């Protein structure tokens, strides 16, 4: 894929892009919505608590069921949702920019399949039972598979987005089949993985976040560093090269950022679909094709979607819960249809 | 609720040849004579009749080679059965069983296929005298004929009364002596608990917390074990309806005077329940602070032995409550 049709010059006042002041206003509105959802995420659930009780639990910690519920479960869950959502959103924006495909998600690079396969091996073959143990396998699986895809998608002239996508799809298919074979031959592993593979942020302690957080920060820095290059690459490889963009380096850095972000999110929460696909796509409606704005919107809107879905999953069948990965799939399917039908508005 | 242990699905793989081969074998075998009075120590030449959900089945009175399939596996082991073939259970479930049952399990051939279904060829290769199986009607409908071509099949479905079921399995496996001992103990415990704690059972609020090893992080359930269900049916403890709960809701257990939690046969918490016991909120519960959180043993199978062990745990737990 070397050419694409766009409606204007990114970052230079594209005809379809709104004014910067409107972009900023929209971003502030998105931040406000995220803040509301953060509060709701801590207050709404199996037992509903007032914002005052939440505040009290944070500033005057003491022994009490509500206090423990907030500090030990709700707050970690909310922070996990924030981090995982932001990582999924930015990684989705990156993959869509890298492949110039507005309906791409990180799955086409094999990140999810690599993580799932590694977790299957960890649980089914090595007997790892705890999420804090197999999350590193998930991360390693994502990294190894992405490097493999990067290598397979490379030619003498550098990395080709089309080849990378094809390699990702092929590797994903193979690994998905291998994972299925392993779980079918080891039903116990299937039982153990059921919770993780549904995609959930429930019961994830903050201890899972801290070791991954530095890698996510590095990935965000990488993402910001390739923003200008991705804007230029949206015009086509030849134009980007003429503008001085080092195509190979930019693609490697982008893939690295995608892997660190999506791999980290998947390692913590399991595979959660549609967030990384929908949010950058919707962001593009509002801000046009400028990657910097798309990143900014994605980093705010994606956790909002994840937290809203998680809150919905808590209340729909209370006192039981639906894993957030299932809720996002339910929400995502109809939204995806809408996105496909609205292709013109969000084309890259 | 997903069953954590025994895999229930059956396969129809390669059954055509088996049906033919074993159908011919069955046709050529001499018809067994029904036995009027089952005897636990009957000689091998005698037979007994067992009532099943597939009609009355004639089985050898003293079978030497029994295959226990699907949900019959744990109940059969608990009656002291030493099957030659068994449907596999997961390691977590196995670890919760007493050592002698683990040994009997490991000595048997796992007849589950790699996908957890029943390997009919493997069952046939064990040349069983009798097959005991507890599963759903639909699954049995798919494999019942093939199994019957291998050996007499004592089939009880999931809806059958558990007491009727274990009687049938015990009869099929010539385990009636053990069954009767376990049954007597169960009945004695049922009576004594009802008598000794009549007042406590009327007033005390009792709940059982349950969580199996593969449960979703941060979730558990109340009053969900098969034993809690049986104890309620027996009229011993009027447990509330079973319900899923998240760890955020542990505070809702504060109203209970006695909290039971699932444990291994040695009384230690199961790997599944341990994360719940480790939470700060659990440690804050009045019943926990007062030492009224007690272990009870209940694997995912129903038998008089399992139930008696559960009642022993309940008996000890009730003893910690003040008598009013």
General description of the model:
The complex is a heterodimer of chains A (348) and B (324). Chain A has one domain (20-38, 63-342): ABC transporter involved in vitamin B12 uptake, BtuC, CATH 1.10.3470. Chain A is mainly alpha-helical and 348 residues long. In chain A, helix 3 packs across helix 12 (275-287). The model of chain A is unreliable at 1-15 (pLDDT under 50). Chain A has helices at residues 20-43, 51-59, 65-99, 111-124, 131-152, 161-185, 187-198, 213-225, 227-233, 237-242, 247-269, 275-287, 291-315, 324-341, 343-346; strands spanning 154-155, 158-159. The longest helix of chain B has 21 residues, at 176-196. Chain B is of the alpha/beta class. Chain B folds into two domains: 15-174, Rossmann fold (3-Layer(aba) Sandwich); 181-319, Nitrogenase molybdenum iron protein domain (Rossmann fold, 3-Layer(aba) Sandwich), CATH 3.40.50.1980. In chain B, a hairpin with an 8-residue loop joins strand 8 (206-210) and strand 9 (219-222). Chain B has 14 helices and twelve strands. Helices cover 41% and strands 17% of the residues of chain B. Chain B has a five-stranded parallel β-sheet, sandwiched between helices. A five-stranded mixed β-sheet of chain B has the order 10-9-8-11-12. In chain B, helix 8 packs parallel to helix 14 (304-319). The interface between A and B is medium-sized, with 33 and 32 residues.
């Amino acid at each position: 894929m070397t050419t694409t049709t766009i409606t204007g010059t990114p970052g230079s006042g594209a005809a379809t892009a709104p004014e910067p002041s409107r972009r900023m206003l929209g971003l502030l509105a998105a931040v406000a919505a995220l803040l509301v959802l953060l509060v709701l995420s801590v207050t709404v659930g199996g037992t509903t608590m007032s914002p005052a009780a939440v505040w009290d639990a944070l500033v005057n910690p003491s022994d009490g069921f509500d206090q423990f519920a907030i500090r030990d479960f709700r707050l970690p869950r909310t922070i996990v949702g924030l981090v995982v959502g932001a990582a999924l959103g930015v990684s989705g924006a990156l993959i869509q920019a890298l492949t110039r495909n507005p309906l791409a998600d990180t799955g086409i690079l094999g990140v999810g399949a690599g993580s799932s396969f590694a977790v299957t091996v960890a649980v089914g073959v090595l007997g790892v039972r705890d999420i804090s143990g197999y999350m590193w396998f998930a991360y390693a699986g994502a990294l190894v598979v992405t490097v493999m895809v990067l290598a397979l998608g490379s030619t003498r002239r550098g990395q080709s987005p089309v080849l990378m996508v094809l390699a990702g799809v092929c590797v994903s298919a193979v690994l998905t089949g291998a994972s299925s074979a392993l779980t079918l031959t080891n039903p116990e592993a299937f039982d153990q993985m059921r919770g993780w593979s549904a995609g959930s942020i429930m019961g994830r302690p903050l201890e899972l976040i801290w070791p991954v957080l530095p890698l996510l920060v590095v990935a965000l820095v990488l993402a910001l560093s390739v923003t200008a290059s991705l804007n230029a690459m949206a015009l086509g490889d030849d134009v980007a090269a003429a503008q001085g963009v080092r195509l190979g380096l930019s693609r490697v850095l982008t893939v690295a950022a995608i892997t660190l972000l999506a791999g980290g999110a998947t390692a913590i929460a399991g595979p959660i679909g549609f967030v990384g696909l929908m949010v950058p796509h919707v962001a593009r409606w509002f801000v046009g094709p400028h990657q910097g704005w798309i990143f900014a919107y994605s980093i705010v809107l994606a956790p909002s979607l994840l937290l809203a879905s998680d809150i919905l999953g808590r209340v729909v069948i209370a006192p039981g819960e639906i894993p957030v990965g299932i809720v996002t799939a339910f929400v995502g399917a109809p939204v995806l249809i809408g996105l496909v039908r609205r292709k013109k508005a969000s084309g890259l | 609720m997903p069953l954590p242990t025994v895999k229930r699905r059956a396969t129809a793989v390669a059954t055509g040849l088996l049906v033919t081969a074993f159908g011919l074998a069955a046709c050529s075998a001499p018809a067994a004579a029904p036995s009027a009075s089952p005897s636990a120590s009957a000689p091998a030449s005698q037979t007994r009749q067992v009532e099943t959900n597939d009609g009355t089945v004639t089985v050898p009175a003293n079978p030497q080679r029994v295959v226990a399939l699907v949900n019959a596996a744990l109940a059969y082991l608990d009656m002291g059965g030493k099957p030659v073939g068994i449907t596999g259970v997961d390691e977590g479930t196995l670890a919760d069983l007493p050592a002698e049952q683990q040994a009997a399990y490991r000595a048997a051939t796992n007849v589950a296929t790699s996908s957890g279904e029943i390997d009919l060829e493997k069952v046939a290769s064990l040349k069983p005298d009798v097959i005991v199986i507890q599963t759903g009607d639909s699954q049995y409908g798919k494999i019942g004929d093939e199994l019957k071509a291998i050996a007499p099949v004592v089939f009880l479905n999931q809806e059958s009364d558990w007491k009727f079921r274990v009687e049938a399995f015990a009869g099929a496996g010539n385990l009636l002596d053990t069954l009767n001992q376990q049954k007597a103990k169960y009945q004695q415990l049922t009576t004594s608990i009802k008598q000794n704690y009549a007042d406590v059972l009327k007033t005390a609020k009792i709940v059982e917390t349950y969580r199996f090893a593969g449960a979703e992080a941060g979730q558990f359930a109340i009053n969900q074990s098969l034993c809690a269900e049986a104890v309620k049916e027996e009229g011993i403890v009027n447990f509330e309806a079973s319900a899923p709960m998240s760890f955020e809701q542990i505070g809702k257990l504060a109203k209970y005077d006695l909290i039971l939690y699932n444990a291994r046969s040695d009384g230690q918490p199961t790997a599944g329940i341990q994360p719940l016991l480790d939470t700060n909120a659990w440690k804050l519960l009045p019943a926990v602070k007062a030492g009224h959180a007690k272990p009870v043993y209940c694997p995912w199978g129903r038998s008089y032995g399992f139930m008696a062990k559960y009642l022993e745990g309940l008996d000890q737990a009730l003893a910690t409550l003040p008598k009013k």
